[in-house]
């Protein structure tokens, strides 16, 4: 598995660039209602705070989060293979849309996610084009997750009137992949039987639950 995931990551990067509607790669898709706690779950997996926070729909583009386990003694070799500068810190991130820059400040990672989200979707719109972030760290397991916008029902401020359908269509694009594992996030204080994240799906064999 440790050898397979990097290969899948390379394929994912290639398909994000050239596009592919016919090949469906295995992936873990993170889905939940708006403010359900998806960001907190992902940040706990990484062990760092790096995701944008705020009111309304903060995640408006898919975020492909590639975690690469990199022991400190392998950092130099990893950076040389990537052709990037060798950072002083053992935990760092790179974006596929930003060339020749290594992020060691996770607050800067958050700002870049916000800026790149606004670049295509503005302050309110949903975009289907993913952002790919790779995090190298000795504290993570090699894993790839895709964070999607939170389910919402009512447009607020100047959000598009069809915001609910935009989000649901985007989620369906990902979870309809038969190779997808759905990580459904629901708050612990929400009745399981009424959770939007759970009732939205009809493929229970593919779902993992987190409260």
TrEMBL record:
Residue span, Dynamin-type G domain: 22-211
Entry keyword set: GTP-binding, Nucleotide-binding
GO biological process: endocytosis; intracellular distribution of mitochondria; mitochondrial fission; peroxisome fission
PROSITE patterns: G_DYNAMIN_1 (PS00410), G_DYNAMIN_2 (PS51718)
InterPro entries linked: Dynamin, Dynamin_GTPase, Dynamin_GTPase_CS, Dynamin_N, G_DYNAMIN_dom, P-loop_NTPase
Record keyword Iron-sulfur present: no
Molecular function, one GO term: microtubule binding
Stored Gene3D superfamilies: P-loop containing nucleotide triphosphate hydrolases
Cellular component terms per the entry's GO annotation: membrane; microtubule; mitochondrion
Keyword Oxidoreductase attached: no
Family per similarity comment: Belongs to the TRAFAC class dynamin-like GTPase superfamily. Dynamin/Fzo/YdjA family.
Listed name of the protein: Dynamin-type G domain-containing protein
Source organism of this protein record: Rotaria sordida
